[in-house]
Amino acid sequence: MEAATEFWLLVKYIFLGLFQGFTEPIPISSSGHLSLLQSVFGMNLEGLQLEVLLNFGSLIAVLIVYRKDIVRLAQNGISYAVRKEEKNKSEFMFIVYLVIGTIPAGVLGLLFEDWIGETFKAPQLVGVTLIITGIALWIIRNIRGSRGEGGLTWKDALIVGLAQSVALIPGISRSGATIVAAMLLGMKQETALRFSFLLYVPISLGTMVMSIGDLLQDNIAEMWVLWLLAVLASITATYYALLWFMNIMAKGNLKYFAFYCFIVGAIAIIILG
């Protein structure tokens, strides 16, 4: 019996890693789906520690996918800061805009994340917010912006950052909210996508750093294997889901994610409400 229990616990952690990893980069709200998953199957994340680790796995995948952009921004940004080379100014300003865009979610997350998570975790509320995400995706389904990285302003960064802070609510997709805001501001699809996921890096990294104390208080000796497998599953699922989503964005097929959010949102309201 004990061996069977340990096996199913192993399956549970790998499944949660794959589930969170797949839903993180695509605009259907990983937090909302995890909330619904727990309601339907009675699964428990045992606090925020596992969720933080799974998000860290997604962060690693994002860093792998955007590694060339990150290296380019770092090299050219430092070059402009040190030598004031005009050709590298756009990369330097892009970094500045990422910092500006991080501030709203960082501040609001510190102040209200726990309250928001508890207040909006009811399945019917998650269903409503998923439908709102679907409506937003439907609105931008045919938009083709013209502004690249060089055309961004601090106001754009602040608006996209505010959109990211709205995604603290379960059911509001982080990637969806930021991409919707960016495209409504006239950004090109590839620029909106890049800004959205590079904006995810400091938020996820900051959350991980702030949670290290809580993670170390847990019984690491007993949990590290399960945690490691869950994180590896999250990395793998996020990596392939993000590449898939980038391909879908290029083809302009966001409407299918809108349909999905409508359907899952309606099910959550009618059946789970």
Overview of this protein structure:
With 273 residues, the protein is mainly alpha-helical. The protein has one domain. It is built from eleven helices and no strands. The longest helix has 32 residues. The chain is globular. The model has no long low-confidence stretch (mean pLDDT 88). Its main location: membrane. Its EC number is 3.6.1.27. It comes from Thalassobacillus devorans.
Short description:
The chain has 273 residues and is mainly α. It has helices at residues 2-23, 30-41, 49-65, 67-83, 89-119, 123-139, 154-166, 174-184, 189-217, 220-251, 255-270.
Count of DSSP-assigned helices = 11
Residue share in helices?
A: over 70%
Following the backbone from N to C, one meets helices and strands in this order, namely HHHHHHHHHHH
User: Sheet with the most strands?
Assistant: none
What are the segments in which pLDDT stays under 50 over at least 5 consecutive residues?
none
Share of residues in strands: under 5%
Determine the mean pLDDT.
88
Q: How large, in whole angstroms, is the Cα Rg?
A: 19 Å
Structural category is: mainly alpha
Number of strands: 0
Number of structural domains: 1
The termini sit apart by 35 Å
Instruction: Tell me which oligomeric state these chains represent.
Output: single chain
Query: Looking at the structure, what is the overall shape?
Result: globular
